[in-house]
Design brief:
It is found in: Cytoplasm. The chain is an alpha+beta fold. The protein is built from ten helices and 15 strands. The protein has helices spanning 20-26, 31-38, 52-67, 91-99, 115-128, 152-155, 218-239, 257-267, 278-281, 288-298; strands at 4-12, 16-19, 42-45, 76-80, 105-109, 135-142, 160-169, 175-183, 191-192, 204-205, 208-209, 215-216, 249-252, 307-314, 318-325. Bound molecules: acetyl coenzyme *A (ACO).
Length: 326
């Protein structure tokens, strides 16, 4: 198997900002509650005419430029999202058309907030085996479209954005070292949208009104997240033959500052080694990790040879972690 790495990253966030002060006017909440319980201060909201594919496209153009390849060189596009433009065609096909990536296969991958890690694992195997050379993996979301802005338990948590990474062959000793992926379907009911699939296609189904919004059991998801973040990272590190002390940069899914802090405690990592952008963007689901990665690259926080750990968790329940040598 040949070594595979991330050779270019990109990101995009919509311009419109929804602050805690704005939310105070919409639901019974306060800036203080939101900051102390979550760490979030503001989030980005897509314009009415911006779809998930539009956000994905912008992040992809940046990632291709950073990788120094053209869209026509792409062999595959994977979009990970819980907010596709529509059930089908896949958002990946829509992005493929906009990029003019005419030689690329394209599909969407569903693993909620762990989607980007699942996407990386899938993409890297195509390249490692020699089937493909360049694969674009995108995490993109317009969560504002599936957020109930009358529910204070959830509406404070989510935002819109996109991150993208081009994967390709790299020099021996660099790139992706290991993956740890997992799922626990017994927790499927903890975090879900009931509408839009065969269970319930539309919001009004057999006279019963269903809500086309995110439902979340926050406390149970919190407990799961605290448990899984540290353990998934530890398992990926062990598979890579590395230890916690080797970590140069830790990039966790940006769901809640307290969840991130508990992972840092378990891994005995100082906050300086962690990428934290949830004060600015809140939780952008599948976009959160690639967005944070692209920002870390932009800010010069990664140098060649660094050990980087990415870890995500989300609906499914799902989780995933990967260790990279940058
Ligand atoms: N403002 C003010 N009060 C609020 C708000 C709000 N926005 N939201 C909830 N409350 C109230 C609750 O009603 C509750 O009141 P009660 O005690 O009278 O019932 C009280 O605050 C405490 O509620 P808890 O749920 O115990 O608050 P907690 O400290 O657990 O924080 C939170 C809630 C932030 C949702 C937390 O549970 C959490 O972050 N969970 C994980 C969420 C997550 O990560 N989800 C996504 C993962 S996957 C993905 O990214 C799609």
């Amino acid at each position: 198997l040949r070594p595979v790495g991330i050779i270019g990253t990109g990101k995009y966030v919509p311009e419109r900002i929804l602050s805690n002060a704005d939310l105070e006017k919409m639901v019974d909440t306060t800036d203080e509650w939101i900051v102390t319980r979550t760490g979030m201060k503001e989030r980005r909201i897509a314009a009415d005419d911006q779809m998930t594919s539009d956000l994905a496209y912008e992040a992809s153009v940046q990632a291709l430029t950073a990788a120094g390849i053209t869209a026509e060189q792409l062999d595959l596009i994977i979009v990970t999202t819980v907010t596709p433009d529509m059930p089908f065609p896949s958002t990946a096909c829509i992005v493929q058309e906009r990029l003019g990536a005419k030689h690329a296969a394209a599909f969407d991958l569903s693993a909620a907030c762990a989607g980007f890690i699942y996407g990386l694992a899938t993409a890297s195997n195509y390249i490692a085996t020699g089937m493909y050379k360049y694969v674009l993996v995108i995490g993109a979301e317009t969560l504002s479209r599936i957020t109930d802005y009358t529910d204070r338990n959830t509406c404070i948590l989510f935002g819109d954005g996109a991150g993208a990474a081009v994967l390709g062959p790299v020099e021996e000793g660099y790139g992706i070292q290991s993956f740890e992926l997992g799922a626990d379907g017994t927790g499927a009911e903890l975090l879900k949208i009931e509408v839009g699939g065969s269970r319930c296609l539309t919001a009004v189904d057999s006279s019963e009104e269903k809500r086309p919004f995110i439902y979340m059991n926050g406390r149970e998801v919190f407990k799961f997240a605290v448990r899984i973040m540290g353990s998934a990272a530890e398992q990926a590190l062990a598979k890579a033959g590395k230890s916690k002390e080797d970590i140069d940069l830790f990039i966790p899914h940006q769901a809640n500052m307290r969840i991130i802090q508990s992972a840092l405690e378990r891994l005995k990592l100082p906050e300086e080694k962690c990428v934290i952008n949830l004060p600015n963007y809140a939780n952008t689901s599948a976009a959160s990790i690639p967005l944070a990665l692209a920002e870390a690259v932009e800010q010069g926080r990664l140098k060649r040879g660094d050990t980087v750990v990415l870890v995500g968790f989300g609906g499914g329940l799902t989780w995933g972690s990967t260790v990279l040598t940058w």
